[in-house]
Each structure stands twice: as structure tokens, then as C-alpha cells.
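re: ur question from earlier - yeah i can do the single chain one, its not a big deal. heres the input i used so u can compare w yours
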Amino acid sequence: KHRPLTGQGMADARALGKLMTAKKYKPAFIICSPARPTQQTMRRLTESLGAIESVSPPAAYYTTTGQLYELLKQADCNIQNLMLISHNPSIHGLAKFLSGIGADDSVSQLKAGYKECTLSVLQCPIDGWLTLMPDENDLADLLIPGRDFTGKIEE
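and the output i got, formated as C-alpha cells:
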């Protein structure tokens, strides 16, 4: 819980925040694990994205894919753009569990693995988070560090 992000991890999170800003992927709300590295990731992202309301429930730390899924389903139904920052392997499992369609190369990349600081952008055909279902969501984008962005370590 107390292991900090590496210099490369911080640089990648900053670079991802800039790419999210350029692609207009600004969440309205963030659910973030209370662990130090995820909190550092969220701070680096919001350097580019601006202030975003967030919560850090203990349930987002050291959890299973199913528990993350249940956490998403409890989100306020008025929030349309939600970001979840959590840990592998659970976050990777959740992205695979929720994705049903998407570009073939993105879907195969998602199935192949999930580096730290990867972003899965899902379009979910739901009326509220409670109705979120597995395999019915479009993997609209998959941003992978080293492929789509690389952070420069600041000296």
C-alpha cells in the first residue's frame, strides 16, 4: 500500500493525462484505490485533466474483478463518465469481463495483457451503473504505455 510509483510510472501517468486531454477523455468522477501508487497516478492525471471529484473506498484496494464490478454498479447513476483506477490483475480482469465488442486489434491487445497505466475506454449502453452488464460494452479505445504514449522522466 505504501510502495510509491517509479519515476517512469509518474512520467507515464502525466503523459496519459495529456493524451486523455487531447482525446477529450475527461471523466466526471474517479473511483481510485487508496493505495499510494494509484493516488499518485490520479494526481498526475489531474495535472492535465484538471480537478475531478473522486472517492477512494477501501473496497478498491486488494480486490477481485467481481468486487470491482460491484463497486462500479454502486456508482451514482447521474455520472456518465466514470474512471476507475485500481490494480492488476483485477482491473485487467474487469476490462476483459466488461468488453464485448471493439476493434479486433484492441480486443486482442486487451486479452494479451495489461501494463501498468493502461487505459481502457469503454462505451457502456446503460441507463445507470446498476444496469452495467458483462460482454455488452464497446472497447472504444485502448491506450498502452510504450505504444500510444511514453512519459519522459523529469530530472
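The chain has a mean pLDDT of 93. not sure if urs matches, ping me
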